[in-house]
């Protein structure tokens, strides 16, 4: 059994975990360990077992490590694939005795090391899924037996013809979805080709202004081909999925504790 360790409350870690396990052809012998409350949705995990990190472990690295050690024994796990945070979200992987691999994406490395200063694990293989900062990249190479780029490709969906619409994509939090709605409303006042409707693909059940409607679509990427404009934050997964549609994608980065959405959005702009 392989445990894909996707600590973090957002769905991005889980979504990436599914894609990584599919790419490496490991879905039949893996489970995803996460604290995301929405991870059990069938359309998210695609049948991969989900194991929940108890919320009460937040702020208790030693208790978190003990819980994880018990989980490893109970699941008869022989390997851990660590998503994003090499020492865990709060240092719970530091000192853990189990062979580990690592999936590395862009990280605010200085801030992460300030919060998790302990001796970090060594990895068998580190897969990089996007360009890292120089300091982070140096760590990955120094603490891994093998480093390889792992190409995660956007999903492809058919272009279903429908009335022109714009699409807002963001799982939350709610105040950020509201900000994207307000930003889109401003764009509408300037648009020469106003759409018939703006769809909002989000798990946040907020009231929407006239002309906006909730879209029950999972994955939301299925709507990307037909949308005439896409508005989203700059998380790893949405930036990956919108890569084929960058000419109609409006990116609004948000501040994150460890993720650097501003750097990711800047890279997209500079790639033109």
Summary, kept brief:
The chain is 30% helix and 20% strand. It is α/β, with parallel strands linked by helices and 272 residues long. It has 2 domains: 148 residues, Rossmann fold (3-Layer(aba) Sandwich); 106 residues, Glycogen Phosphorylase B (Rossmann fold), CATH 3.40.50.
What would CATH call the architecture of the largest domain?
A: 3-Layer(aba) Sandwich
For the sheet with most strands, the description reads: 7 strands, parallel
The CATH class of the largest domain is identified as: Alpha Beta
What is the average of the pLDDT values?
A: 92
Strands side by side in the biggest sheet:
3-2-1-4-5-6-7
Instruction: Predict the CATH topology of the largest domain.
Output: Rossmann fold
Number of helices: 8
- Report the principal-axis shape: globular
Structural class: alpha/beta
> Helix and strand string, N-terminal first?
EHEHEHEEHEHEEHEEEHEH
Tally of distinct domains: 2
Instruction: Provide the β-strand percentage band.
Output: 15-25%
Contiguous low-pLDDT stretches (5 residues minimum) are none
* DSSP summary, beta strand count: 12
Terminal-residue CA separation:
43 Å
Oligomer: single chain
Cα-atom Rg, whole angstroms?
Answer: 19 Å
Helix content: 25-40%
3D architecture notes:
With 272 residues, the chain is of the alpha/beta class. It folds into two domains: 2-149, Rossmann fold (3-Layer(aba) Sandwich), CATH 3.40.50; 165-270, Glycogen Phosphorylase B (Rossmann fold, 3-Layer(aba) Sandwich), CATH 3.40.50. The protein is built from eight helices and twelve strands. It has helices spanning 11-23, 42-45, 61-75, 109-115, 134-142, 174-190, 236-241, 261-270; strands at 2-6, 30-34, 50-52, 79-83, 100-104, 123-128, 144-149, 165-169, 197-201, 212-214, 229-232, 249-251. The strands form two sheets. It has a seven-stranded parallel beta sheet with strand order 3-2-1-4-5-6-7, sandwiched between helices. A five-stranded parallel beta sheet has the order 10-9-8-11-12, covered by helices on one side. The longest helix has 17 residues, at 174-190. It is globular and about 60 Å long.
